[in-house]
UniProtKB/TrEMBL annotation:
Record carries keyword Ribosomal protein: no
Domain of life assignment: Bacteria
Keyword hit for Transmembrane helix: yes
GO MF annotations in UniProt: metallopeptidase activity
Keyword terms: Hydrolase, Membrane, Metalloprotease, Protease, Transmembrane, Transmembrane helix
Transmembrane residue ranges: 12-35, 81-99, 120-145, 157-173, 194-210, 240-261, 267-287
Name of the protein described by the UniProt record: CPBP family intramembrane metalloprotease
Start and end residues of each CAAX prenyl protease 2/Lysostaphin resistance protein A-like domain: 162-248
The species this protein was found in: Ruminococcus turbiniformis
């Protein structure tokens, strides 16, 4: 705990999250509007020139026919749109993150103990192997419990070219999400609560940003690990690196056909998931032994309730 008590603890957490969602939604809306306006103007022009009869049925049919390509463009460029929206949130989270570090100095809170750079290999290995294990586990879950939303999300994600996927899904979006959910939310929870309380609630909100149940479960577990890395390494660079490595490796392995090869045989898929989980467990043990922040068990936390904005 950092022992920083804000006057309005609710808004210190809810405010940044609402701002993050509003910025993302506004950028996505503007881009969507920019794509749809030319098609809408075409319908209006056809109505003025008498090409379309001014009846409700004719106008509705025209909208359906003309806006079809617009909807296809929205799906085709979903990665680019999501990346632009995430990029727009960095101004907000960057200012808040910098302000929080200044506030810590004001309260005389010593800077976090940072893990040596020589230990970052653990994050690289965990991310690369973890991307294989996680993808295999999600593929197995998809076989057992088919999730149409997960299927649709995967299709739209891989619609973009690999360089665009790496820049957007592998760099911009992980950076934006980590700045919000670890850099702001987790750290602000940590001002008043212990590790598990802070990690759980920041991971809950992180997982709620995803639509399918498969992704929700996966991102919640990933959020706990990202919070632990932030705590252990003492810098936002650690969770950003893991998030980026997992996303990039998943994209590259998919492009190389690794997951298609593993998924062609159920036994092979299961072995890859188990082996990957074993390697990640071994690396996690190494991470645990890295000298980091001292564990804290504040007395007031023992009787605290799971109030998400406490």
């Amino acid at each position: 705990m950092n022992q920083i008590y804000r006057k309005r603890p609710f808004w210190s957490l809810a405010g940044p999250l609402l701002g993050y969602l509003v910025i993302r939604g506004a950028i996505q809306f503007v881009i969507q509007l920019g794509i749809e306006i030319p098609y809408v103007m075409q319908i209006y022009s056809d109505m003025v020139n008498g090409v379309i009869e001014p009846t409700m049925e004719a106008v509705t049919e025209a909208y359906i026919n003309v806006l079809g390509p617009a909807f296809e463009s929205l799906v085709r460029y979903q990665v680019e749109i999501a990346s632009a929206a995430s990029l727009g949130t960095l101004a907000l989270t960057g200012v808040l993150f910098s302000g929080d570090r200044k506030l810590e100095k004001k309260y005389g809170i010593p800077p976090a103990v940072k893990a040596p750079a020589s230990k970052y290999w653990t994050i690289l290995v965990f991310g690369a192997v973890g991307s294989i294990a996680a993808t295999c586990l999600m593929a197995m879950a998809q076989m057992a419990f088919y999730d149409i939303r997960y299927e649709q999300a995967a299709e739209s994600m891989y619609a973009a070219s690999l360089p665009v996927q790496i820049i957007g899904l592998g760099i911009i979006i992980p950076l934006a999400e980590e700045m919000m959910f670890r850099g702001i939310m987790y750290k602000r929870y940590r001002e008043r609560q212990g590790f598990w309380y802070s990690a759980i609630w920041s991971s809950v909100f992180f997982s709620m940003m995803h639509t399918s149940m498969t992704q929700v479960i996966y991102t919640f577990c990933l959020g706990l690990m990202l919070s632990y890395l932030y705590e252990k390494f003492g810098t936002i660079k650690a969770p950003v690196l893991l998030h980026a490595v997992m996303n990039i490796c998943s994209l590259v392995f998919t492009e190389l056909g690794v997951f298609a090869w593993l998924g062609s045989d159920a036994f092979r898929l299961g072995v890859a998931a188990i082996a990957g989980a074993f390697v990640c467990s071994a690396v996690f043990v190494v991470i645990q032994r890295i000298p980091g922040q001292e564990k804290e068990n504040p007395p007031e936390e023992k009787n605290s309730t799971l109030d998400m904005f406490r």
